[in-house]
Amino acid sequence: MTSTPKPLEFCGRRLGGNGRALVCTPLVGRSTRALLAELASILPQSPDLIEWRADFFDAIADQRQVLAAASQLRQLAGSVPLIFTRRASHEGGEPLAMDEDSVVELYAAICASGDVDFVDYELSQSEHHRRRVRAVSQAHGVALIVSCHDFDRTPASVDMLETLARAEREGADIAKLAVMPRDPSDVLRLLEATLQAHTALQIPVITMSMGAMGALSRTCGWQYGSSVTFGVGHRVSAPGQIPVGVLRSTMAALGAAG
């Protein structure tokens, strides 16, 4: 028996269900000034979502500076939803001079600020920390993306499906999985796992196969159930990201062909 995940509605946008993926562009500036300049250059490209990769931010350990930057980004972004992400170094993020307790308290403060719509936190973190992030996101009406990134390989299909299902069981509003292909068949297995998760789970999923080989998943993954794709607006935040304009035109062509 198949089902359709319950979509999330926010700021006039629909994430999940059946339909074309939303296009998200990353911000990777190391200062508030650089972030605002990045965002100003990205907004004319009409992204559906903006992700602030805060692990690139030089002042991430200073909570006041992070909150001030988030407030300015919120004002400039207007109605475009914002995702706050500290990507852990063991999942491809920048190394930080912060312990995980401090990171989680930063998440609590950013959720309470009202300046972000989503936070992304890794499934690989301790249960204690994940529960804390889940609690503060729920308390402030911020959607939680629970993510997993494998930069070495593409796991077995059953393992990819279980990773996404575990994210749902542990309170995710959205489950995200990014993997690295070693050959073209890995990309096809990622898409198959995406379709299975889209059918089996009650929450939206975001999936991608990284690197040049995995680019196919970024342009047509939505046809298999991935609800968001990440495109380059200014600078890449992960290998294989495609410029926003190319993503939109390719997805439009695929939609027209269907």
Overview of this protein structure:
This protein has one domain: TIM Barrel (Alpha-Beta Barrel), CATH 3.20.20.70. Strand 6, helix 4 (127-139) and strand 7 form a beta-alpha-beta unit. It is α/β, with parallel strands linked by helices. Helix 1 (32-42) runs parallel beside helix 2, helix 3 (100-113) packs parallel to helix 4 (127-139) and helix 5 (157-169) packs parallel to helix 6 (184-200). It contains eight helices and eleven strands. The strands form two sheets. The chain has a nine-stranded parallel β-sheet with strand order 9-8-7-6-5-4-3-10-11. The chain has a two-stranded antiparallel ribbon with strand order 1-2.
Q: What is the topology?
A:
Layout lengths: L7 E3 L2 E3 L6 E6 L4 H11 L6 E5 L9 H15 L4 E4 L14 H14 L4 E5 L4 H13 L3 E8 L6 H13 L4 E6 L4 H17 L4 E5 L5 H6 L7 E5 L9 E2 H14 L1
Parallel strand pairs: 3-4, 3-10, 4-5, 5-6, 6-7, 7-8, 8-9, 10-11
Antiparallel strand pairs: 1-2
Helix pairs in contact: 1-2, 2-3, 3-4, 5-6
CATH third-tier fold name: TIM Barrel
Domains counted in the coordinates: how many?
Answer: 1
CATH architecture: Alpha-Beta Barrel
For the largest beta sheet, what order do the strands appear in spatially?
Answer: 9-8-7-6-5-4-3-10-11
How would you classify the helix and strand content by structural class? alpha/beta
Helix content: 25-40%
Number of strands: 11
Within CATH, the superfamily carries the name: Aldolase class I
Average pLDDT for all residues = 90
Low-confidence stretches: none
Distance between the termini: 24 Å
Radius of gyration: 17 Å
**Can you write the helix and strand succession as a string?**
EEEHEHEHEHEHEHEHEEH
Please work out how many helical segments DSSP would assign: 8
Q: Per DSSP, what share of the residues sits in E-state strands of 2 or more residues?
A: 15-25%
Major β-sheet profile: 9 strands, parallel
Overall geometry: globular
CATH class: Alpha Beta
